[in-house]
Amino acid sequence: MKALTWQGKRSVSVEDVPDPRIEDASDAIVRITSTAICGSDLHLYEVLGPYMHKGDVLGHEPMGIVEEVGSSVTNLKPGDRVVIPFNISCGHCWMCNNGLQSQCETTQVHEQGTGAALFGFSELYGSVPGGQAEYLRVPHADYGPVKVGSELPDERYLYLSDILPTAWQGVQYADVPDGGTLAVFGLGPVGQFASRIGKHLGHRVIAVEPVAERRAMAERHGIETIEFSKETGDVLREMTNGRGPDAVLDAVGMESHGSPVGAFAQHAVGLLPDALAKKAMETAGVDRLNVLHAAIDSVRRGGTVSLSGVYGGTASPMPLLTMFDKQIQTRMGQCNVRRWTDQLLPIVEDPSDPLGVMDLKTHEVPLSEAPGAYSMFQKKQDGCIKVVLKP
Ligand SMILES: NC(=O)c1ccc[n+]([C@@H]2O[C@H](COP(=O)([O-])OP(=O)(O)OC[C@H]3O[C@@H](n4cnc5c(N)ncnc54)[C@H](O)[C@@H]3O)[C@@H](O)[C@H]2O)c1
Ligand SMILES: [Zn+2]
Ligand SMILES: [Zn+2]
């Protein structure tokens, strides 16, 4: 089959790879009909390259049609239409039973000391072949895949694989009080949905984003927007009676724009051989922290900072004095996708499309054109906000 493979920093290609097969009784094989590129893929394309291997199949936002199931998969049959959550979780361990599917004790990657295995997400998360491919082997298919109807287009359901539950969890974790204000940093796909969800739940939402067309997309969903600058904290305080937003959601992560120290560190690490680069990432501050620091600066005293954006350095400097003094709560982590999908399914099927899932995709291309699409998405060319690949 054809699959999109990682080849090196900023280099991916479509290659012929062996078809996946049932290896375990709880596996399913799914023929992929739609599969999106995520901001997290851009981290693998750039900063997290040292954890990738040449030929790794990328992709963790897939959906499609079940082709074959293992003997213990009784909830699915060939022909079913399913969305595949990006975390691989068993559904019966203590973590899964407590809504922490991204920490699944059955699939945790012990070698790396990380949480649940993820599709297409580097050796940090188990080097599991991903879903930007014609077919995908889905482990623990007796729990993970979300069965969906056959009438509506793929884009109604596709984002249940990751960004919609991620944004939902980010807003839940932001813990905005009734009548409160949520500031969302970043209007990539995650920030777009987080802003719309905040508004849908009755909060005032102010989004911060440097790219004009991303602000324009949010504005057509009724979101107030501002540009990012050194004065963002002051601007947000001015807009909220001098106090600051009750909660701030960071939907940017470790590759923010306008963070010269982190950018330099990331560039320097990128020049090292993999083993040294990993060591550097484990011991030095390699995150671009301007957004996280702006979030801590702008949130009101006693407010919450919720991180959906991914960070990767183990020694990134944090303003602990301010965090302690302002009594800030923080919550973060990979999304527990399966915790939220039952709640989100009726919302994406609602004919009025309350979260505007049909207004996110800006580009649809065949899998063969994925390499160009990665580059376009990373460079934010041609108004690109979300790419959906059709294998
Ligand atoms: N927690 C999870 O489970 C989870 C799931 C999916 C994605 N993510 C992470 O969420 C983040 C966003 O993902 P995405 O798909 O929306 O990607 P994206 O790269 O399209 O979005 C990032 C956005 O942040 C904006 N930005 C950059 N610098 C900024 C600044 N200084 N101030 C304000 N905005 C700035 C960019 O212009 C862009 O619009 C990534 O870090 C991704 O890895 C996490
Ligand atoms: Zn993703
Ligand atoms: Zn589990």
From TrEMBL:
Domain Alcohol dehydrogenase-like C-terminal span(s) in chain numbering: 189-255
Cofactor: Zn(2+)
Tagged with keyword Oxidoreductase: yes
Gene3D superfamilies (UniProt xref): Medium-chain alcohol dehydrogenases, catalytic domain, NAD(P)-binding Rossmann-like Domain
InterPro entries associated with the record: ADH-like_C, ADH-like_N, ADH_Zn_CS, GroES-like_sf, NAD(P)-bd_dom_sf
Every Alcohol dehydrogenase-like N-terminal domain range: 26-143
Cross-referenced CDD domains: FDH_like_1
Alphabetical UniProt keywords: Metal-binding, Oxidoreductase, Zinc
GO molecular function: oxidoreductase activity; zinc ion binding
Family the entry assigns: Belongs to the zinc-containing alcohol dehydrogenase family.
Protein's name in the database: Threonine dehydrogenase
Organism: Arthrobacter subterraneus
